[in-house]
Specification:
Helix content is 41%, strand content 14%. By secondary structure, it is of the alpha+beta class.
Length: 257
Amino acid sequence: MLIFNKLQEQAIREERLAAWLLLTEFGMLPTTKKENKTVKTCKKLSDSFLSSGRLDAEYYQPKYDYLFSHLSEFATSTIRELTEIRKSIEPGSDAYEETGVPFIRISDMSKFGLSDTTIHLNAEDYRDVIRPQKDTILLSKDGSVGIAYKVEEPLDVITSGAILHLSLKSTDVLPDYLTLVLNSPIVRLQAERDAGGSIIQHWKPLEIENVVIPILPMQIQQEIADKIRSSFKLRKESQHLLDEAKRMVEVAIEGIA
């Protein structure tokens, strides 16, 4: 367990270093300076409802103005310009089976990977439904919006309609870099602004298409991507050790029995 814990700590460290590098280059790290003042914003009708169609005050908070002002200082692209966006299906609970192709919902996904599911779909009935391919970025758009995970290898699974498949079509960004940006405050704030104002969050595909992504120099992107891949490799090694430890315990118990 000592080695397992050490690998986990190293994985977390690499991931945090990647996030720190991104936010440092973007100039978005929080400051330790405390300012005791009230921030407010005032917008004309032409700059608010008439341009956005939104009446909820949360949409016009100063933090969003700050974010987009900051983004304007960098080279940027939208998700629509960088990726091809595809949506999966929502078959309904009547189609759920105990065996077949695993059906992945948002609750089965995190930025670190996909967990096992007890829900499956008939392979023949859903043979033409898209499957995640290598470097596909899965992005949640409902409920827990803005969770992004990059697929490491082709997977024979079907995702729910609440998870979008993003496939890179531009060479301006690396897939690991884009995934980190999608999971960062840079995009989280945009998702919060777009999907706010409702009890159950729903991030519309049109809004997702227009999400602004900063394009850092390729050298920085590569450095970030290397740290992300190192983190995932360490997590995989630690999980392998844990699985081996569990197997040894099971064998020992069987031997005693």
